[in-house]
Each structure stands twice: as C-alpha cells, then as structure tokens.
Design a protein that fits this description.
The chain is α/β, with parallel strands linked by helices. The chain contains 15 helices and 14 strands.
Length: 397
C-alpha cells in the first residue's frame, strides 16, 4: 500500500491536540490503514507502544465491548499511568453510547483521540452535542487517480489509465487482485456489506429490494440532476408504488452510508444554496460498474464524477452552479475563495466548445473559471482556462 500523504498532511498538525480527530469514509476506503500510519509516525517521534491503545471494533476480540460501560472499563484497565496516551478507535459507531466515554476521556485525561466511522451521521447525534467545537473531521475517500497511478507505478498516465480508473474506481484492496472477475467479486461483496450492514441493520430499512433499486438507479445515472418525480416515474414503469417520503428516507440512508455524495445547487447570482434538484455522485465508480452494464458508455458523466470527488479530496465545498437558463457543473469554495468548473469528456466540435465555455458569459465576476476535458490541445479563451483532465487529476496538492 502507499502512504496517503494527501490525507496525513491534513491530520499531522493535530497529532498532539486535545481535539478529537474523526476520520469518516466509505467502508474499506483505507481508514484503518491511515490509523496505523499515524501510529507509526507517532512512534518515530518517540511515543512508546505502551502509550498507544488501538481497538478495531470489527475485530472479534472486541465483540463483547458493545456499550459505553464495557468500553470505559477496558480502557481504564489498559491505562497504566498518568502520562499521555494516544487512543485509536476504529469503526466506533458499533459501540452504543460511545459518545459519553469519548467525552469523558477527553475531559479528564491527557489523551489524543482518533476515531473512525463509516457513517456520515457519526457526528450528528450526541457526540456533536457533547463535543461541539472539540473535534475536527477528515474525509477519507477511496484512492484518487494520482494515488491509483502511484500504487500501480504509472509515472506518465495515459487516457487508458484514466478510463480504467473511471471503470473500476479506487477502492484500495482492488489493487491487490489479479483479474477482472476477482475485482467484480470484491466490489459486489463490498456493495452487499454496505447495503446489509451499514444501511439495513443500522437503519431498520425493511424493503431491501426497494433499497437496491434506488441504489441501482443512482448508479446508472451518475452526475444527473435528481428529480423525485423522475425516479417515482421509473418505479411506476416497473410496477412499484413508492411514496415520496419513503423515497427520501431511503435516499437519506444511502447518503449516510457514504456510498454516494449529494451536491446541492448554488445560486451564483443570489449567493445562496438551493434546496431542489440536487445531483448525486458515486464515492467510488467501481461500485457503479458492477450494477450497470452500460456504465462505461457514459464517459462524460464518469469524468464529471471523478472531478467532483477530486475537488472534495482537495478540501473544497462543491456545489452545482445555478444561473438563469443554465448551470455550471461545479462551484468550488475554500478559504473564502471561489472557483468554477465545467467538465466535458472531449470538446468534439465548435458546438461543444461554445456550450462549455459559453456558460461563463453569464457569470461576470473575476473568480477563476475552468473547463476540464480529455483534449490535449489548449482551448483556453477569454479568461477561461482549459485544463487537460489527466494533468489536472495528476497534480500533487
């Protein structure tokens, strides 16, 4: 495996901080490996093994630790003195009431605490209430394109490398497999574990067939504006009656599992977030591939999905830009700055060029504006910068 420097460099400033470090990401996206890399770096700085306590709650040896009391008793037993300890809790959401224990450790001991979870609502309940302002979160995504090239020892990526990534995604464990059938089996198993464990068991969702159908619809239509009426019409065509409320409940469960991300619309002129016609993007494109035989044909949508994930990885808040009569693929916000992005697979002809660049004519501000495509020729014009997709995705940030 590679060292995920892009994530580690954001966490390092907090190694000694009393702020609780929360790593959130899709199941099997590499959170456990990151925790072990952090532990190794702490040891290199002089922290002794005896000062480090690591627990992975998916490990059977901790299966008896299911509530706050047993967790508290276990850690108290492991702590031998008053010196600083480093506590690592992997997939801690499996322990009922863990929030109060974490808060107790933070408030009464000299500790640095790291926790991971595969649920986006890990911090939406009691932990958020108890620890308001006392934690910092880090998004752990599957490998980016540049990380995939690094693990495959590809120094000069080609169009074929990017197409391979768009087809099979960046789940770390897939790179240790040797055939397409093995990758398919692995991704199918991952999908099933997300559905059955992270959604059905945790939320009590009863209609697994409906849940699967909604997920398959999202995976078959990445980067498309989502309309509840459109998906309800789809279910009607396959003789399924679904209420709007049930649909949105299941969408919330799916988003909470981190298998998809929702991009809200941003009113560029009004500078406000809109609450209708969101877009959903897959956290990993390989999970879409196994559920849609025509997936690879929608290359423009897949590239848009890749760029969306890349912007998130770089720390941007990403929205779909809305202007009267049109939209910009992405409005990216970070540190009080704004950038605009249009994404096209290829700028095939003048009509496509005018469509992608022309949208910016209705945005008279001076923030950076980009068009990303697979083309190697530079089409930059009138202050709008054209970027080659491979070059953009290969940048070290």
């Amino acid at each position: 495996m590679i060292k995920r420097e892009s994530v580690l460099k954001r966490i390092r400033p907090f190694y000694e901080s009393e702020l609780i470090k929360v790593l959130i990401g899709l199941r099997r996206s590499g959170k456990s490996v990151l925790l072990h890399e952090i532990m190794e770096e702490l040891k290199q700085k002089g922290v002794r093994q005896e000062q480090i306590i690591y627990m992975n709650f998916e490990d059977f040896q901790y299966s008896y630790i299911t509530n706050a009391k047993t967790l508290y008793d276990y850690i108290c037993d492991q702590r031998k003195n008053e010196e600083k300890y480093y506590l690592f809790f992997d997939e801690i959401q499996m322990v009922d009431g863990f929030e109060r224990v974490i808060n107790s450790f933070r408030a009464t001991w000299d500790v640095s605490i790291f926790i991971t979870g595969s649920n986006s609502k890990l911090l939406s309940g009691e932990l958020a209430t108890l620890l308001s302002g006392r934690y910092v979160t880090f998004r752990v995504a599957p490998f980016s394109f540049s990380e995939c090239c690094e693990i495959r020892n590809v120094a000069a990526p080609t169009d074929e490398d990017l197409v391979e990534y768009m087809n099979w995604g960046g789940m770390p464990q897939r790179f240790s497999l040797h055939s397409e059938s093995e990758v398919r089996t692995y991704l199918q198993d991952l999908f099933n574990s997300v559905v059955l464990r992270d959604i059905v068991q945790r939320t009590g969702a009863r209609d697994v067939d409906l849940l699967n159908r909604i997920m398959e619809y999202l995976m078959a239509n990445p980067s498309q504006t989502f309309s509840s009426q459109g998906i309800l019409k789809y279910f009607k065509s396959v003789d399924r009656t679904v209420s709007t409320q049930t649909l949105y409940n299941y969408l919330d469960h799916i988003q909470t599992s981190l298998i998809v991300s929702k991009a809200q619309r941003y009113d560029i002129r009004g500078k406000k977030i809109l609450t209708t016609l969101d877009k959903y993007y897959l956290t990993d494109l390989g999970l879409g591939r196994i559920h849609n035989s025509g997936f690879k044909l929608e290359m423009g949508a897949l590239l848009e999905n890749v760029v969306y994930n890349e912007l998130l990885n770089r720390g941007y808040e990403v929205y779909v830009g809305s202007i009267p009569g049109s939209e910009v693929d992405f409005v990216a916000l970070k540190d009080g700055k704004k950038e605009y992005y249009q994404v096209a697979y290829y700028l095939y002809d003048q009509r496509v060029i005018e469509r992608e660049f022309g949208v910016y004519a209705n945005i008279p501000d001076n923030y950076p504006k980009y068009v990303i495509s697979m083309d190697k020729m530079d089409f930059s014009r009138e202050g709008v910068i054209h970027l080659n997709a491979i070059k953009f995705l290969s940048e070290t940030v």
